[in-house]
Amino acid sequence: MQQRIEAALAALNPEHLQVLDESHMHSRGLQTHYKAVLVSEQFAGLNSVKRHQKVYATLGDLMGQFHALALHTYTPEEWAQTGAAPASPTCAGGSKH
């Protein structure tokens, strides 16, 4: 699934793309939770909601094949200033109860 997500997101011509499988941090099983760090000029002038919508549209039907996708989207200029996405929080265990 990770490779499929990466292949689909390549359509956004990313300058940087990192997709991490973070399923081990959650209780829903394997290949369920992902984190994507995406740097693309296509995000210029878009707010975070529009950026995320662009990613969701690019992924299309893949979105229904996993539980969660944490998105960190940047323009090249933002990435040059930031250089790293924030760490993912520890799972609160909502589905463990």
Note the overall shape.
Answer: globular
- DSSP strand tally: 3
- Straight-line distance between termini: 27 Å
CATH architecture name: 2-Layer Sandwich
Query: What share of residues are in beta strands?
Result: 15-25%
Counted up, domains total 1
Query: Count the helices. How many?
Result: 3
Overall pLDDT score: 87
Helix content: 25-40%
Oligomer: single chain
| Helix-strand sequence | HEEHEH
Question: What is the CATH homologous superfamily assignment?
Answer: BolA-like
Description of the structure:
The protein has a single domain, classed as BolA-like (GMP Synthetase, Chain A, domain 3, 2-Layer Sandwich), CATH 3.30.300. The two termini are about 25 Å apart. Helices cover about 30% and strands about 20% of the residues. It is α+β, with helices and mostly antiparallel strands and about 100 residues long.
Keywords, separated by commas or semicolons:
alpha+beta; 28% helix; single chain; 3 helices; 97 residues; globular; 3-stranded mixed beta sheet; GMP Synthetase, Chain A, domain 3
Topology:
Blueprint: H1 2-9, E1 16-21, E2 33-39, H2 48-59, E3 68-74, H3 76-82
Parallel strand pairs: 2-3
Antiparallel strand pairs: 1-2
Brief digest:
The protein has 97 residues and is of the alpha+beta class.
